[in-house]
Please model this.
Amino acid sequence: MNLMKKFAGIALASALALTALAGCAQSAGGTVATDGSTSMKEVIGALGEAFEGENQAVTFTYNPTGSGSGIQAVLEGRCDIGLSSRSLKEEETAQGLTGTVLAYDGIAVVVHPDNPVADLDVETIGKIYTGEITNWKDVGGNDAQIVLIGREAGSGTRDGFESITGTADQCQYRQELTSTGSVITAVAQNPDAIGYASMASVDDTVKTLTVDGVAPSEDTVKGGTYLIQRPFVLVTKSDTPLSEAAQKFFDFATSPDAAQLISGAGAVAAN
Amino acid sequence: MRKKEQALERAVHGVFLLLGLVTVGCVLLITVYLILSGIPAILQIGLPDFLLGDTWASTAAQPQFGILPFLLTSVCGTAGAVLFGVPVGFFTAVCLAKLAPPKVKTAAEGAVSLLAGIPSVVYGLVGMLVLVPAVRAAFHVPDGASLLSAIVVLAVMILPSIIKVSVTALEAVPQEYEDASLALGATPVETWFRVSVPAARSGIAAAVVLGVGRAIGEAMAVMMVSGNAPNMPSLFESVRFLTTAVASEMAYSRQGSLHQQALFSIALVLFLFILLVNAALNFFLKRDKEGSPC
Model:
């Protein structure tokens, strides 16, 4: 009996290993492989699910590695479509990549729910993050040191936030965390913390600040009145055509029909 | 018949040799790969600037790659974890091996094995949700994500390896040693610490080496509780370890860039650092063992 179990276990393990191998080996024929920004998880997840529902034969994969890795993956042909939560840099377009804006994402500035501060302007947020303002009482809060929480170097969210607030390379982070979820958790745990995260990922464990009196929402991001926002970009090779399945997904994602799915995932569709 | 057996013998010998070589090959491959990918950045940055530079700003317009803060943090973090973890683990092991009634022992050993099986990300998560706020409240610091939190998490994480290996070593001490000691009038406690522990010294030393290795090499749990800002080590400051420096930025570094090469260099430094620590520990502990009349 025991032996049987052992064999069953080994058989199961090898079967799993084989499936995993097979998964890697599958070519782009019936698959759409996307790779990149972790902030685009919700949007891509919703689009991928709907796309798979409509096209049963196609397998859709999403590898959340980060904008930089995603762009790199397209360049090396390791995926069909790269996902970047920042506009492509000049050197990247020069390498033969094209970026298509899929949606806009507001970056929400979040604090602990008990924090009395409700509104900051972009300049003040910049000053807080560069360490010019270090106490909450200077911006109308309690007498407590501000704890700055941010993302790691290279993160699309950090890049987006720092470039919008004009704080690139000057932020005095107390914590540099490696995922959106960690930032939300860290802010939810500390009454004096301030952090930033993709608008779509913010939940009610933290309080979202209004920026210059404008709360991040679909309308304010699309209308441009909410200032801390950035594009979600689909990255493809300029000279190589997409596989049939990938092209189908690309058309689907950028079609007006997908707008509702995108807004359902918390971002604002560009089309 | 005899020839056939010999042929079989040789075949089996060959298979085992091959398997052994695969292991050695893996180590060699990793070593060579690390050296090859780690050297270019060190050459470009300059060894003194790299090892002794105190500023890490990898994505700045004027990037700086100084890893002294990471290096010192790894040293302090590991030392701290050993300081907390080794005494607790050692006394637990003595207690389990000599003192505990069989039922308690079975339960405790099960718990220790379970502790060893918990994935490091779970340690990190619990640390983030429980330990970090607790450190913040207990010490009245602005934020609890700090070297201290990392040390506590690491100390707990190295406990299982220390306890399990030490218990095994203590149990391997021949019963006659202890009987002789007791017969000479020593109390049980005297017997455990004067006879059993010295006799099991090399096993306990191996346990400590294992623990140190695990503490230096841990990335995930530490990343979640230490804050990751590249500061010089200080107990209540946010710090970044060698491991987390590699892990947190690798995903975003551009292929072939100096940034990525520098991360490989950090990995190389970490690798050499672990080799050095292990070699030093082995050297001192072995010398101790040979030098003592035991």
Q: What stands out?
A: Chain B has two domains: 2-52, 68-291. The longest helix of chain B spans residues 2-45. Residues 2-52 of chain B form one domain. Chain B touches chain A at residues 57-61, 128-129, 132-133, 136, 142-145, 223-224, 227-229, 238, 240, 247-249, 251-255, 259 (CB under 8 Å).
